[in-house]
Amino acid sequence: MASIVASIWEGITYRGREGHWAWLLHRVSGLGILLFLALHIVDIYLIGVGKEIFEAFLFFYHSAPFKVLVMGLLFGVYYHAFNGVRIILVDFWPERFSNWKTQRLMFRVVIVLTLLAFIPSAIATVAPLFNLHMPWWNH
Amino acid sequence: MRVTLRIKRFNPEKDEKPWWGEYEVDVEPNDQLLDALHKVKWYQDGTLTLRRSCAHGICGSDAMVVNGRNRLACKVLMKDLGKKVTVEPIRGLPVIKDLVVDMEPFFAKYRAIKPYLINNDPPPEGRERLQSPADRERFDDTTKCILCACCTTSCPSFWANGDYVGPAAIVQAHRFIFDSRDQATAERLDIMNDMMGVWRCRTVFNCVECCPREINITKAIGDVKKAILEGGVR
Ligand code: HEM
Ligand code: HEM
Ligand code: SF4
Ligand code: SF4
Ligand code: FES
Fold first, then answer.
1. How much distance in Å is there from the Cα of B132 to the middle of ligand 3?
2. B219–A94 CB contact, under 8 Å
3. In b/e form, how buried is each residue of A79-118, taking b as 16+ CB within 10 angstroms?
């Protein structure tokens, strides 16, 4: 674990290119999702503990500061999923995908797909804060 | 043109920790960074320590971190570096002094992959072992390596764990694994099929981006990973 953190620090100070940032973001998002999963296990567990405490948690989840974290989570999940597919392609078909040109192109495609998925989700996440309702919500 | 070199200095006999030395030098745009470092060493501060031999990108002895990225000092021109240039020793290997690191751990990994042809059959009477152009082509890319360590010391997996065999050693293994004249394929694949072997590679491509010989290293590593999965070279 300490070495994973150390490698993130060295990763920030080395000036690599697309693959380097792709890797760094994949590791940070993977660890971020894992951290959220730990918290998530606690919140689901609270259903069994009591209605009040679980609802207090839900209010916290719906507060503005937490929405910032939820945005990070959404971005992280989409990015990790799309980039994971890129890594799988590189790993299983090196003769086709493992060269710097295709690599740089694929990273850009991953970012575009991530943003395409992330932006609508992000809007839906913050909309209630501004009393806006998404057309597909019927309450 | 006048440039400022910021060089990470460290003398283990005198310094508690590394420090940055700043030197102003006049250079021609087409000078190598190595020329600029020589100007510092020969005319300003003779204690600056660096390693170089051929000065033409062949011996692989002057890898360093230049403006945050691994380069050979003799293969990078001043006009491509800007007015302020930072120079550090390559990462992940112990610093002996200034820009000189201990390459022994790096070469130990090179030796570990048995970097020589293994073939127990005698060659055909009176002639060399023949190979088709297509068979020769399979490992052409990985014959170009000069063992400069740019790749291994740019690899986040290697920084995180110095036991990782590293891209350079895998490139060298690839050169023999995919050589149709070699008989130790299974043996070398076995060495590569290890927690500290090819599976530490996270396809970061830092190695490919900085290899001065422009070897497609990540593809070579991918070839070896696939050969392991398929139980041999196809
Ligand atoms: C769509 C679902 C997912 C896909 C396609 C995916 C794909 C991948 C791939 C291919 C790797 C290997 C990376 C490499 O070789 O460099 C990886 C690493 C990782 N994943 Fe995922 N993953 C998914 C979901 C998750 C989830 C839900 C978590 C956390 C709970 C997670 C946490 C991690 C972590 C911590 C790593 C290690 C990162 C590293 O070594 O740098 N992943 N993922
Ligand atoms: C902000 C986004 C998320 C929300 C609002 C959410 C909400 C929920 C809810 C309401 C449940 C059902 C609890 C129940 O009825 O038992 C649940 C279960 C679960 N969630 Fe999430 N979740 C989110 C993101 C995630 C992510 C990113 C992961 C994976 C890393 C995850 C993993 C799980 C797991 C493993 C369960 C347990 C399933 C079970 O016990 O049946 N969730 N979540
Ligand atoms: S593969 Fe390239 S970067 Fe690595 S040691 Fe060989 S020549 Fe240097
Ligand atoms: S592609 Fe593999 S070996 Fe090369 S820098 Fe990345 S992780 Fe290291
Ligand atoms: S001095 Fe020989 S490679 Fe640079």
1. 26
2. yes
3. bbebbeebbebbbeebeebbbbeebeebbeebbebbeebb
- Token pair 């992959």 in the structure block, residue: B113
Min Cα–Cα distance to chain B from A14, Å: 5
Say what angle helices A51-61 and A18-49 make with each other, to 10 degrees: 150
What is the DSSP code (8-state) at residue B42?
I
pLDDT in tens, chain A (139 residues): 556 666 667 777 888 888 889 999 999 999 999 999 999 999 999 988 988 999 998 888 888 889 999 999 999 999 999 999 999 999 999 999 999 889 999 999 999 999 999 999 999 888 887 877 776 666 5
Amino acid present at B60: G
Q: Where are the beta strands (DSSP E) in chain B?
A: 2-9, 19-26, 63-66, 69-72, 84-88, 95-97, 100-101
What are the CA-CA distances from residue A114 to residues A60, A106, A127, B55, B162 (Å)? Answer: 27, 12, 20, 45, 33
Domains and CATH numbers, chain A: 23-129 (1.20.1300)
Q: Is B148:B212 a contact under the CB 8 Å cutoff?
A: yes
Chain A positions touching B154 (Cβ under 8 A) are: 14, 16
Residue owning the nearest CA to atom 1 of ligand 1: A81
